[in-house]
Amino acid sequence: MIRLHTKSIYLFLLLTVHTLASLAQTKQDSTSAAPFFKDGQAQIVEAFKDPAKWIRHDLWVETSFDTDGDGKLDRMHVSVTRPYQTEHGELKLPVIYETSPYYAGVAGDLQGVMWDVKHELGATPKPRTHPNVVRTGKRPIISNSLIRQWVPRGFIVVHSSSPGTGLSQGSPTVGGINESLAPKAVIEWLAGKDNGYTTPDGEEKVKAFWSTGNVGMTGTSYNGTLPIAAATTGVDALKAIIPVAPNTSYYHYYRSNGLVRSPGGYLGEDVDVLFDFIHSGAEDKRAYNNKTYRDGEILNGIDRQSGDYNAFWAGRDYLNAMKNFKAALLMAHGFNDWNVMPEHSYRIYNAARAKGLPVQIYYHQAGHGGEPPHEMMNKWFTRFLFNIENGVEKDPKSWIVRENDKQNNPTPYADYPNPAATDVKLYLGKGGNSAGTLQLVKSASKIKEVLVDDVAFSGKDLASAKQSDNRLLYVSPVLKQDLHISGIANISVKLAVNKPAANFSVWLVALPWSEDKAKITDNIITRGWADPQNYKSITKGVPLKPGKFYDLKFDLQPDDQVIPAGKQIGLMLFSSDKEFTLWPQAGTEIIVDLNGTSLTLPIVGGKESFVKATE
Prior knowledge:
The chain has about 625 residues and is of the alpha+beta class. The chain has helices spanning about 5-30, 145-150, 180-190, 220-230, 250-255, 270-280, 285-300, 310-315, 345-355, 375-385, 460-465, 605-615, and strands at about 35-40, 40, 55-60, 75-80, 95-100, 155-160, 195, 210-220, 240-245, 255, 260, 330-335, 360-365, 400, 410-415, 420-430, 435-440, 450, 470-475, 485, 490-495, 505-510, 525-530, 550-555, 560-565, 570-575, 590-605.
């Protein structure tokens, strides 16, 4: 028999009482610590604030696909950050979820990684260099984004690496169906499905017992694309998403109206380049993945020779998959985002609005990225994840940051485009090599004017030049008062080319061009690009007959901008755009028939406002 000393018994009893008290306190904390709300928003809970007490762990969620060819369903690496009060099951909280292909590192910027753009249209480009990604990051933390913002407010934050990246199994496909099904599988696990495992290959299960089953998603750029991808699956637990600057169509990202066109800042990038950039998954699976997807499905589908829209691109266009979409949608984008252009958000917003879903759109005047103000995001997630009736559905649908305002101070409007905007058709008057006119009345004279392609001159060079044979420029009278444009401008041009193919670029600019201390909104209003070979359809371009005139119509990028008094609105037509298109040899001539050409501008106040501003 073991005899305890009196002092030992006392210490044992003291320790027992302390342990029981601690357990009781833990239980009390888990039941008394709870989210609370003010002004329709989740507030910071003192008991959830201490990062040292957050529980952080990782796991793997099994999907419905096998993309790395090993005969087993791919599992996604998932990490969780939650208040410790959720550990004993008394407290369940909703989840804010972000998934990404970038968390484990990306490829370096090696020489020859991008496609060479210095060749004629329709030519086969020379092969490019393939880099390898050196994987970074340690378990269990996949990412620290979102957690300090949302965990103290009573949300659990979850991250996962996309297929074929980091410690997630499978292969990247850059817009393929597995990028929609992967987050769906994670969301289903968060809603109670028994598809979570403690290891990538084992059989020990793990459940999300701490989740209410209500999930929201957010993220920027690629990370903003994936919430839309997940929402198109119709997964029930995904209640709300806030995509920021999302790519909603890989065709619209890498092509434009039949034209091979790069995203701004990434000349020569294409789907296969992005594949290499993100392919950070298991090294022993990369050869199979490269052969099957990069060098197979992707290379066979992108068609850099024609730029036409095909089944490959249709399968990577989320607008085509909106049938099952039911998540509440708050979009965010910049009107001067020339990487992922502002049309990407509008097209999905417009489709979700047509379905009668809760929608809002936040546009700012800056470039790539830019979340909505925290209050907007908080109200959105509070309403749809906590089911707090805060009236957000009755708020204005459109929030636009005006030109000189801060991004956290948007102006509300009933919708986007501004309901007070109507289309105004403007016609061209002769003199485009210097400065022709942009006017309400169509010229009675039959006028044809010529521009000569030369990619040596940038768009900025051409717009600021007083005279140039390499562009045609048509300007409005000097504005006597501010003019508000809201919506999608479009161009209808009658043209002929002296070769079977040509780039065609359009910039709408505010003149005179501002050089010194120019703001991002000062010079370029909006722009667009098209392949004249696709004048009938983006699915089938046909070689142009030299000298024959064709009618080409297409939209420019969405905008909402107030052009200040003292400026002129300029329509600039040119061929190769140095920052975006292929670089053929100089000399291609484009003839524009002014009588068959017009610009339609969405102007708040319509024709009356234009007249007041210009006459």
